[in-house]
Design brief:
about 260 residues; alpha/beta; D-Maltodextrin-Binding Protein, domain 2; 2 domains
């Protein structure tokens, strides 16, 4: 009898803690954490939102901060699942590898993934060679221009729909796309602004075109069909935009160039 009372008390305390953090319905819990833990995909290939320590494998960054806050709000344990490219995150939805992810919104991805509104907006930019005649975004979309991109990234999907003349060459992850651009002497490489800035700052033979070719709307998401979890995430995202959490995470992680997405 005493043991049953203890267990009931512990369950009540857990539910109380969850309610204090943010009301989490049982369907939302089951949807977000069908294994008992929220498996959160972290794409450390996007330098603006996450990084992975090469020596320890430790993940950090804006996405990690938000994942940890999600765990606090729900009262559920969080497991971070690392990926080195966004295309690999979206592909892994087919194998039930994650419950929540951070990805750029895209209609192609939305066939299998349900997105919240954006929480952050970042630029997509080109890097070209120092002596390249290309100086603006419009010039890049020209006959004979080859652009290296990370496979199935947001900018790969966007450029696949919008380019009229230039040719895309897919190179796996962002570092692989950069290596391909350099080794094959392609005319441009596309990527997240922060990654392109980093590349240009470390290589005197290249420069970044300052004008962004797209705005990348980063959102949280779940596999399609998990409606209670998706609804919870939508409320969560609006809350962390409104209370300053996202803005503080950007500053804390040295990403002041990125912008908090406007509220719904």
């Amino acid at each position: 009898m005493r043991r049953r009372t203890f267990v009931q008390g512990a369950m009540a305390a857990l539910l109380c803690n969850r309610a204090d953090a943010q009301a989490t319905s049982q369907p939302a819990v089951a949807s977000l954490a069908p294994t008992g833990r929220i498996r959160v995909a972290i794409n450390y290939g996007n330098a603006a939102l996450a990084v992975r320590d090469a020596a320890t494998g430790k993940l950090s960054g804006v996405s990690v901060d938000i994942a940890e806050e999600l765990g606090k709000r729900t009262g559920l344990p969080v497991t971070l699942v690392p990926f080195d490219a966004a295309g690999k995150v979206s592909a892994a939805v087919k194998s039930d590898a994650w419950d929540v992810a951070f990805l750029a919104r895209d209609p192609e991805r939305a066939r299998e993934i349900t997105f919240t509104a954006p929480y952050v907006v970042i630029g997509g930019n080109y890097v070209v060679r120092k002596d390249s005649p290309l100086t603006n975004v419009a010039q890049v979309d020209s006959d004979g221009v080859r652009i290296a991109v990370s496979t199935q990234s947001a900018y790969d999907l966007f450029l696949s729909r919008t380019l009229k003349h230039a040719q895309l060459v897919r190179g796996g992850t962002t570092p692989q796309a950069i290596a391909l651009f350099l080794s094959a002497r392609y005319e441009a490489v596309a990527g997240v602004k922060q990654a392109m800035q980093q590349f240009a700052a470390g290589d005197p033979t290249v420069r970044m075109i300052p004008e962004s070719f797209m705005e990348i709307s980063q959102a949280m998401c779940t596999p399609a069909g998990r409606d209670p979890g998706s609804a919870y995430l939508s409320t969560f995202v609006e809350s962390i935009k409104a209370n300053g959490f996202v803005a503080q995470a950007l500053i804390r992680n040295g990403q002041a160039d990125a912008s908090v997405a406007p509220p719904l």
